[in-house]
Specification:
The complex is a heterodimer. Chain A starts with a helix and ends in a 17-residue tail after the last helix. Chain A has a single domain, classed as Orthogonal Bundle (ABC transporter involved in vitamin B12 uptake, BtuC), CATH 1.10.3470. Chain A is mainly alpha-helical. In chain A, helix 1 packs across helix 10, helix 3 runs antiparallel to helix 4 and helix 10 packs across helix 11. In chain B, a hairpin with a 2-residue loop joins strand 1 and strand 2. Chain B has a 6-stranded mixed β-sheet with strand order 6-7-8-3-9-10, with helices on both faces. Chain B has a 6-stranded mixed β-sheet with strand order 16-19-20-13-21-22, with helices on both faces. By secondary structure, chain B is of the alpha/beta class. In chain B, helix 4 packs across helix 5 and helix 14 packs parallel to helix 15. Classes of the chains: A mainly alpha, B alpha/beta. At the A-B interface, helix 7 and helix 8 of A face helix 2 and helix 3 of B.
């Protein structure tokens, strides 16, 4: 293998892990939110809120990690509105989610206008993991990243364990599959839905803030460019499993990195066409995943999108 | 009066109101230690409401609950569980995609953070062995039969240390054999000192399994009696306030020519599993063929295939000699096939359309209902009025959404609309489910009338009594096949029960 070609490839994949993490965080959050039976289509808006407030926090404090935290809190607060409307008021989750997306876009362009094109001086920097980063090929791809990427790896493991091996996970899954049964068994349905909707929002915010505090440390209106929508689709691809969310996130990250490299390499393919690649792939993935979900009789939480009311007769 | 010490539970003056009805009207109920106490009453008598109050799902508007001498305040199922009350609902409270283990430990506080599957599985098996049944702790709920799912529910309550078990119509989904097994388990639990409340509207099983019986009617207490000191007939009188019509009169009608013929039908269900497995059946004019079987053996799919709502992947269906395999519902209606679906408000009627609009759904394309491109609402109203009068349908407001009607009146409207089409073949799917006695009788009589007019009727029902009462021939369905057809006049219930459970094949 040509050594230079090899090193380019490693660079592409390292980039893929970065863009993959942007998608992974909101996908992971939405996996958990949807497991509780709440559909949150507002990911794009939540990511924008996370991205803007993350950027703002980093600008004001000079610490990108504080910025990231602020982005998460802001998005969590927005997700709490979603939870209030969908769980307490039993509103239509699809409409509320779409409204949240538009709200996020509007809010951030309004307040973000004066910040457009300003840059962070201190962004989150890569930190190589000792020993692991020395592994050939895998080291530079997976272990010469920043703290957020490592945190995402760990979150995937934690949430997978939580979901399938612990009581917390059984309660969460039961609430999304059959809220009435969960309620009858003494599980707090409302509390569970609130908690995971807000946590999902925080993770979506982290995905957005990761963009502005690390990958592209400047502000542009609509900087998430539809990644929240891709994350919604990735949840289906992941079949509501945190580990599959990791695979899906990195797969899409690779496509993104690949199309960027192809554009940089100056191919004859129209760049607009290349930029469409992730979205076209989304279609393909959704079709494939939907068929698998149908055939394997697993997947969609049964009461996804259905509000729960106890005393109804 | 009984001594306070032998009473497990007392409910005093329980009243629960829902908008428009009084589901429980000052009801008293007392449960002794170690007894099986049946709670008897018709649909809507308030049995389930009373027990939901006990289970903490509903909070009573008035009244008090005393458990072993202590007054308790039950505000949630969790509260009830803490006081040793476990309820097994008619619609199981199980999460299909979770395993037996996960369902059992759901919501339990005694379990730690990490689930030790092995130890839970061991305890589940120990409970099952104690009461002589088996269950695979690692199986997912959707993989289990209804009978097995019910046992998981029983295990769930015992696992939580329940001393009072409430079973809400536990036999409604079981075969006669499965019911017998359940009764065995209940008797075993009783000898262990558990107190059991058994909700039912079936006289026979109440007589055979209970020690005492409390009867409710329209939310009121009719009385509590010792089972040994009362007859079925007396009970029936308490329950409905008059003698029941046990057999419906029917004229002898000469069987007409073959109307429906289904040959080797094959179809998938919604989950992609073969639901009709080369099923064949024929129905003649002037007869009612009752399809008996435990829910989920392909009855729904059969009805949908015949009415054009489900695609056949193999086999043929003919109506009066014309091949209508996979024909559109529209073609089938014009061929004289009419349908009373199980889901009367979802499939049969349009909930948010008015009574008039629902009544004209089959007719609106006809000239008589139109004025040019527009619907002639005058004609439609007149037509609806005709149906309302002829079938004695109680409609408070003709232009209000049909969903405000009572179940019985909805069914009458549906029946009226379908029968007015002069069907050659009538498919009736659970036509009396959830209806009160009056409406049930009306529906059954109407079906018999149609039969007397030479219509071929296919009656699909889980209520074996109904089929025995109405049908001329009984076809038993099991796993997508007709496993046997018997003459209703010489039907042997035990034999039908065995066929429903798949224990015996065709014996024609």
């Amino acid at each position: 293998m040509n050594p230079t070609f090899g090193s380019i490839l490693i660079k592409v994949f390292a980039g893929a892990v970065e863009s993959g993490t942007i998608l992974l965080l909101p996908t992971l959050g939405e996996v958990l939110t949807e497991r509780s039976g709440v559909l949150n289509l507002g990911l794009e808006g939540l990511m924008l809120i996370g991205a803007f407030f993350g950027f703002l926090g980093a600008m004001k404090t000079g610490n990108p990690y504080v910025g990231l935290l602020l982005g998460m809190v802001a998005a969590a607060a927005a997700a709490a509105i979603h939870a209030f409307i969908c769980v307490t008021l039993r509103g239509n989750q699809t409409v509320t989610g779409l409204a949240l997306s538009i709200f996020g876009a509007g809010l951030t362009s309004f307040y973000g206008d004066s910040w457009v094109s300003q840059r962070l001086t201190i962004a989150i920097k890569p930190m190589a993991v000792p020993v692991l980063s020395q592994i050939p090929v895998l080291g530079p791809i997976f272990f010469s990243q920043d703290l957020i990427v490592y945190a995402a790896y760990i979150l995937v493991a934690i949430f997978w364990f939580l979901l399938f091996k612990t009581k917390v996970g059984v309660n969460l899954r039961a609430v999304g599959e059959n809220a009435k049964a969960a309620d009858a068994m003494g599980v707090n349905v409302v509390g569970t839905r609130y908690f995971w909707t807000i946590l999902g929002g925080a993770l979506a915010g982290a995905g957005g803030a990761y963009i502005t505090c690390c990958i592209h440390p400047y502000w542009l209106n609509g900087i998430t460019s539809g990644k929240g929508w891709i994350a919604v689709a990735l949840v289906v691809f992941a079949m509501w499993n945190p580990f599959n969310a990791l695979v899906g996130g990195f797969l899409f990250g690779s496509i993104e990195a690949l199309q960027l490299q192809l554009q940089a390499a100056g191919t004859y393919i129209n760049s607009a066409l290349l930029s469409m690649l992730p979205y076209i792939t989304t279609f393909v993935v959704i079709i494939v995943a939907t068929v698998i979900v149908r055939v394997r009789h697993v997947g969609t939480p049964k009461e996804l999108g259905i509000p729960y009311a106890r005393e109804e007769k | 009066m009984e001594g306070q010490e032998q009473l497990m539970l007392v409910m005093n003056n329980i009243t629960k109101r829902f908008p428009g009805i009084m589901a429980n009207n000052h009801v008293n109920f007392a449960l002794r230690k170690g007894e099986i106490h049946a709670l008897l009453g018709e649909n809507g008598a308030g049995k389930s409401t009373l027990m939901n109050v006990l289970d903490g799902i509903y909070y009573p508007d008035e009244g008090e609950i005393v458990i072993e001498g202590d007054r308790v305040d039950l505000r949630s199922p969790l509260d009830s569980m803490k006081h040793g009350i476990g309820m097994i609902h008619q619609h199981f409270m199980l999460v299909d995609s979770l395993s037996v283990i996960e369902n059992v430990i759901l919501g339990l506080e005694s379990q730690g953070f990490y689930i030790n599957k092995k130890s839970v599985a061991g305890r589940i098996k120990a409970i099952a062995t104690k009461y002589n049944f088996r269950v695979d702790p690692y199986a997912k709920i959707w993989q289990l039969s209804v009978g097995e799912q019910q046992r998981v529910e029983i295990i769930k309550t015992l696992f939580k240390g329940a001393r009072i078990l409430i079973l809400d119509e536990p036999t409604s989904v079981l075969t006669p054999q499965e019911s017998e097994e359940l009764f065995g388990i209940l008797r075993e639990m009783k000898s262990e000192g558990k107190s059991i409340i058994f909700i039912s509207h079936k006289l026979g099983e109440v007589m055979s399994v209970s020690d005492r019986i409390t009867v409710l009617r329209k939310g009121r207490l009719m009385g509590t009696v010792d089972t040994a000191s009362i007859t079925e007939r007396e009970l029936a009188k308490m329950m409905i306030g008059r003698d029941v019509l046990f057999r419906l009169e029917r004229g002898d009608i000469e069987q007409g020519r073959e109307v429906l013929r289904v040959e080797d039908a094959q179809a998938y269900n919604d989950r992609g599993i073969m639901a009709l497995d080369k099923l064949s059946i024929a129905v003649h004019g002037g007869e009612i063929v009752g399809v008996a079987g435990v829910a989920g053996n392909g009855q729904v799919e059969l009805a949908e295939c015949i009415t054009g709502l489900r695609h056949l992947v193999g086999g043929h269906i003919t109506v009066e000699g014309i091949d209508v395999t996979n024909a559109s519902p529209c073609t089938l209606v014009s061929a004289g096939v009419n349908y009373i679906p199980a889901d009367r408000l979802g499939v049969g009627l349009v909930p948010n359309l008015s009574t008039v609009e629902n009544a004209m759904l089959r007719k609106y394309k006809q000239k008589s209902m139109r004025r040019g491109t527009f619907i002639d609402y005058g004609a439609a109203c007149a037509y609806a009025d005709g149906l309302i009068e002829k079938f004695d349908i109680a409609v408070p407001l003709k232009n209000a959404p049909v969903k405000v009607l009572s179940g019985g009146n909805m069914q009458k409207l549906l029946l009226a609309r379908e029968i007015d089409e002069n069907p050659r073949l009538l498919i009736a799917e659970h036509p009396t489910r959830g209806l009160d006695v009056g409406a049930t009788e009306f529906v059954r009589k109407t079906l018999l009338e149609q039969r007397d007019h030479g219509v071929a009727v296919l009656l699909i029902s889980e209520d074996l009594d109904e089929i025995l009462m109405v049908a001329d021939r009984i076809a038993v369905m099991y796993e997508g096949r007709i496993v046997g057809i018997v003459d209703a006049h010489h039907a042997d219930i035990a034999q039908i029960g065995l066929m429903m459970a798949g224990a015996v094949g065709a014996k024609t």
